[in-house]
């Protein structure tokens, strides 16, 4: 480690100890040096002993800065790894952090645009409208058309801190499997790798701009979801300009009720938006927490969501979508055998998995869920139960499913906050059943033919020539096969003759040796026999060439 990393590591250790997080170190022989080092080298007391562990962990991550805040937010979605008392506290990490100086934001914008800010924008507000762990936004007005916009700017000098912290995270993650009894199952290195990829994606605002444009196109003229317009001519890796939107934060239920919003329809539309993104578009907003969702002021009786911050998106391939939809339907039909078979067929669990044992494990975990009314069953926890059970059968971590599970938990939480009686299954089941029918029925065949029509139209004029070339290659291939068959037959004959001569040679050599051992010195017959045997071997060896 270089001195800067050592200094940063010391600061991190000091913060963690001041919040008493050293109690997370298990008391086993392997961790004895760490515990002794804590007693001998670090005399920093726990300054927050009166607070529970989960809360102390959250506060420590907040104090460590933006990178660790983001890391805590990502960990909060991995409820399969942490108890609820910890995961719930991590989920409370706020997006809003202390903003950096607006004058620095102005300098950054001017450096990215290559001209004074006033050349492109009017009414620039140097006071940040909102500030998150990675970037902050300022309001302005486009000079070319007078439209209100927000300018998102990456925090200055954040990359060196990210790189230093990521190196430390990897180092700590590599130690955990040796320190914690269950460290290998937690896959700490993979968790950090997943986090690093998410973080780097968010740091590239060109990627976020492209994601926003795609989502906006997917829901163009939709009454369910509105994505603000992006102005790509003003965007770069560290700066993005998009339409300013006005709406009610989806978490402000009191304000939504005050303006007469149809909360039942709003909650159902949240579910429909999610499943439409996943199954129709294979492109879903994977960071749909309440801070990124607003509700339009217009038409409260026909409410429309507004989605922002599209830096993290997920996608599923055709196979994953089909298996996932069939899993949901099989689960809610209590067909656990089908659920087990789908996990094996999809490759999510090894092919040698005992389906009967797997089915019984799923039934044991999931059957009690159906003691509740369907409206009380959590879709996200259904996935969680399925994946946790499958993990006992060596299910590999599926990153695309982890993102989907996190997003589904967000969507379900928002829906139930808006309308506690929301029956998510009743809302989703018709969508899933219709989607599966659409994938395997006549419409799917017609759609496939339509998609392939341009290819066949291009190849049709070449078809006679392709058929002729095919016959020609077939004839040539047949000749080659016949020639190889003849050569193989000849080779087998030669090998048979060689084996026969080797046998004759061995017999002659043995007979000659036996007669010679009898002391028949007056006869040269044994020598002739041995010579004949050697000649037979040489001829046999030649036949093998």
Automatic annotation (TrEMBL):
Key words, A-Z: ATP-binding, Cell inner membrane, Cell membrane, Kinase, Membrane, Nucleotide-binding, Transferase, Transmembrane, Transmembrane helix, Ubiquinone biosynthesis
A biological process from GO: regulation of ubiquinone biosynthetic process
Residues annotated as binding ATP: 129-137, 152
Active-site residues, record numbering mapped to chain: 287 (proton acceptor)
ABC1 atypical kinase-like domain: residues covered: 93-343
Principal location listed in the UniProt entry: membrane
GO CC list: plasma membrane
InterPro entries in the cross-refs: ABC1_dom, Kinase-like_dom_sf, UbiB, UbiB_bact, UbiB_kinase
SUPFAM superfamilies assigned: Protein kinase-like (PK-like) (SSF56112)
Location relative to the cell: Cell membrane
Membrane-spanning parts: 498-517, 523-541
Pathway: Cofactor biosynthesis; ubiquinone biosynthesis [regulation]
Molecular function GO terms recorded: ATP binding; protein kinase activity
Topology with respect to the bilayer: Multi-pass membrane protein
Keyword Phosphoprotein in record: no
Function field: Is probably a protein kinase regulator of UbiI activity which is involved in aerobic coenzyme Q (ubiquinone) biosynthesis.
Assigned protein family: Belongs to the ABC1 family. UbiB subfamily. Belongs to the protein kinase superfamily. ADCK protein kinase family.
Protein name: Probable protein kinase UbiB
Recorded name of the encoding gene: ubiB
């Amino acid at each position: 480690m270089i001195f800067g990393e050592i200094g940063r590591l010391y600061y991190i250790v000091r913060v963690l100890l001041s919040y008493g997080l050293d109690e997370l170190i298990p008391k086993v022989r392997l961790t004895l040096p760490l515990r002794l080092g804590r007693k001998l080298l670090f005399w920093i007391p726990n300054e927050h002993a009166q607070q529970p562990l989960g809360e102390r962990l959250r506060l420590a991550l907040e104090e460590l800065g933006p990178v660790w805040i983001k890391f805590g937010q990502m960990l909060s979605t991995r409820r399969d790894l942490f108890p609820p008392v910890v995961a719930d506290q991590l989920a409370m990490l706020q997006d809003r952090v202390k903003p950096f100086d607006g004058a620095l934001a102005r300098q950054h914008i001017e450096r990215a645009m290559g001209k004074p800010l006033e050349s492109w924008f009017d009414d620039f507000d140097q006071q940040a409208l909102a500030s998150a762990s990675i970037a902050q936004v300022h309001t302005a007005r486009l000079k070319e058309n007078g439209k209100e916009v927000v300018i998102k700017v990456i925090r200055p000098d954040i990359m060196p801190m990210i790189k230093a912290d990521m190196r430390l995270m990897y180092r700590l993650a590599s130690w955990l499997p040796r320190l914690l009894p269950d460290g290998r199952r937690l896959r700490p290195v993979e968790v950090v790798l997943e986090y690093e990829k998410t973080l780097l994606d968010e740091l590239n605002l060109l990627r976020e701009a492209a994601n926003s444009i795609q989502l906006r196109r997917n829901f163009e003229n939709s009454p369910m979801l509105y994505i603000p317009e992006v102005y790509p001519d003003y965007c770069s890796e560290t700066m993005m300009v998009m339409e300013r939107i006005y709406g009610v934060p989806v978490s402000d239920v009191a304000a939504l009720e005050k303006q007469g919003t149809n909360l039942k329809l709003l909650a159902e539309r949240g579910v429909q938006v999610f499943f439409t993104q996943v199954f129709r578009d294979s492109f879903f907003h994977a960071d749909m927490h309440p801070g990124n969702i607003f509700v339009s002021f217009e038409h409260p009786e026909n409410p429309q969501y507004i989605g922002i911050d599209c830096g993290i998106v997920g996608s599923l391939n055709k196979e994953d979508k089909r298996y996932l939809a069939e899993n949901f339907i099989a689960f809610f039909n209590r067909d656990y055998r089908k659920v087990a078979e789908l996990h094996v067929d999809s490759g999510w669990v090894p092919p040698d998995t005992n389906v009967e044992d797997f089915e019984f494990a799923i039934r044991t975990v999931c059957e009690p869920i159906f003691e509740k009314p369907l409206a009380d069953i959590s879709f996200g926890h259904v996935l969680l139960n399925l994946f946790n059970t499958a993990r006992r059968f060596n299910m590999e971590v599926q990153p695309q499913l982890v993102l989907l599970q996190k997003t589904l938990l967000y969507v379900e939480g928002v829906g139930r906050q808006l309308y506690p009686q929301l029956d998510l299954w009743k809302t989703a089941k018709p969508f899933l059943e219709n989607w599966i029918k659409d994938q395997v029925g006549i419409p799917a065949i017609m759609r496939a033919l339509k998609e392939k029509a341009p290819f066949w139209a291009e190849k049709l004029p070449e078809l006679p020539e392709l058929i002729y070339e095919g016959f020609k290659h077939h004839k040539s291939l047949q000749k080659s096969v016949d020639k190889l068959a003849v050569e193989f037959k000849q080779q087998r004959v030669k090998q048979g003759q060689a084996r026969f001569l080797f046998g004759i040679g061995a017999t002659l050599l043995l007979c000659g040796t036996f007669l010679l051992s009898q002391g028949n010195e007056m006869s040269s017959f044994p020598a002739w026999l041995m010579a004949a045997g050697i000649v037979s071997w040489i001829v046999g060896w030649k036949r093998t060439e």
